[in-house]
Every structure is written in C-alpha cells, then in structure tokens.
Amino acid sequence: MTRILIIEDEIQIRNNLEQILQLSGYETITAENGLIGVELAIAHPPDLILCDIMLPELDGYGVLTALRQEKSTFAIPLIFLTAKAEFKDLRQGMELGADDYLTKPFEQSELLRAINTRLERKNTLIQEYTEKLESNTLLTKELNKSLTKQVKETQENFEKSQQVSGIKTDLLQKLIEDLRNPLSNINMAIHMLKTANTPEEIERYISVLQAECSREVQLLNEVEHIQKLLTPENTKILQRWKLLS
Fold first, then answer.
1. Which residues does this entry mark as bearing 4-aspartylphosphate (predicted)?
2. How far apart are the C-alpha atoms of 182 and 104, rounded to whole Å?
3. Is 7 inside a domain boundary?
4. How far apart, in whole angstroms, are the C-alpha atoms of residue 185 and residue 38?
5. What is the reported pTM?
6. What is the CATH number of the domain that holds 220?
7. List of E strands, 113-239
8. Looking at beta carbons, which pairs linking 37-45 to residues 24 or more positions away fall under 8 Å?
9. Which residues, in sequence order, are CB contacts of 184 under 8 Å at separation 6+?
10. Is residue 235 part of a domain?
C-alpha cells in the first residue's frame, strides 16, 4: 500500500488530510512538527510527503533541506501545503527541491490529483531507472564477454608467437649445422686448389667449389622461404599435418 507522511501542526487539518487519504486507499503516518516529520520519514520512508511550510521546531523548508541530505529520503516527492502563495515563497521551495505546492484552502480533488501526478511521475522515474540499470547490466556483460574474448585471443597469439619463436630457433640451429658442411668442403677445396699440380686437379677442385657454393646459396634461399612461411597461422597448419613438432 502506498504510504503518505503528513506533516501538519494544525490538528484539524491533519485529521482531515488523514481521513481523505485513508478513504482513497492510502496508508498514512502523521507528524505535528518538522522535527518529528524528519524522524518519521527517515525511520519509515514514505512514498510521498505532504508538508506544511509554517511548522514549529523546524519549518517546511528545513524539513525539505534535511530530507534531501539523507540517502533514504532524498528522492521522496514532497508537496508543500501553504497559505502563502507569493512568488518568492514558491521559488524558494522549488530551489530546495519541492515537487509541488498546494495553496490552502484546496479542494479534495485538487489534493488527490496532485498526489496521483507525483506518484505517477515517481513510478515513471523508477521504471526508467530500472530499464537503464538493466541496459547497463547487459552492456557490462557484453563488454566483459568481449574483453574475455580479446584476452583469450591475445593469449593464443602470444602462445603461437612463442611456438614460432621456438621453431625459428630450432631451424636456425639446424641451418647453421647444414651450412657448416659446405663451408668445410669449400675450405678444403681451396686448400687443395692451392696445391694442385695439374690442370685436371685444378678443374676438379674448381668443380667442388662451384658445387658447394651452389649448395650454400640454396640453403640461404631456403632460409628466406622458411622465414615467410613461419607465421602463427602457417605454424598451426604445419603442426596439424605433423610437418613440425
């Protein structure tokens, strides 16, 4: 049931308001001065507050200021009840955060219409906030999902890069070993060429040098070709076909 707090020092007006609201299906709590009204609002937060401006202990402006400073009451709609209708008074209340004014005396229908309007506005704001919260929650979930995917992809790419780096190291070691053999043969052929005594020996050692040089060039070309092939994507394919360990 919708609860309305009535803060009014005149007992007859307070009783009349309480009777009207209860007959209209509202739950009511009442306070005879501003201090009690603030205490009740904090202890039992209502859905709406009707508050006279001229109150003992703490006037309506003081009540509104106190309630707007409390987390549990700062958003509760408050309608001022006043016998004063001067512009400066209305302005002061609105600047403090009042939601509406009713000038005494007012009709019952005017009172209920003002209450319904403010309650409907409050419900609309709650609905809009709930929808926004749900939208933000969904957006957060999607963002977390996207970030998780990016982290996973980054990790996979890092692991692939590590694999490629390891494979490159292994291949480089193997190529260094393969290059040593032709170089050794070239050195030997050069040495033998220096001691050759016949045209046939010279020709033979030159042939050996040409063959080993061609072999070196071929190995170097293979290095360049393998360098282009060793990408994370190609490495995965080569491993799938067991061409790499």
1. 52
2. 111
3. yes
4. 102
5. 0.56
6. 1.10.287
7. none
8. 37/5, 37/7, 37/63, 38/63, 38/66, 38/67, 40/5, 41/5, 41/67, 41/70, 41/73, 41/76, 42/67, 42/70, 42/72, 42/73, 44/3, 44/5, 45/72, 45/73, 45/76
9. none
10. yes
In whole angstroms, give the CA distance from residue 215 to residue 221.
10
> Of 111, 125, 127, which is closest to residue 50 (Cα–Cα)?
111
Describe the strand order of the beta sheet including 48-52 as a list of residue ranges. 27-31, 3-7, 48-52, 78-82, 100-103
pLDDT tens series, the chain, 245 aa: 899 999 999 999 999 999 999 999 999 999 999 999 999 999 999 999 999 988 999 998 899 999 989 988 988 999 988 876 655 666 676 667 677 888 888 899 999 999 999 898 888 887 887 777 777 777 778 777 877 777 777 777 766 666 666 666 666 677 666 666 666 667 776 767 667 677 777 777 677 777 777 777 776 676 666 666 566 555 555 555 444 45
φ, ψ dihedrals at 31, nearest 5°:
-140, 140
What are 112's two structure tokens? 């209920």
User: Residues for the chain: how many in total?
Assistant: 245
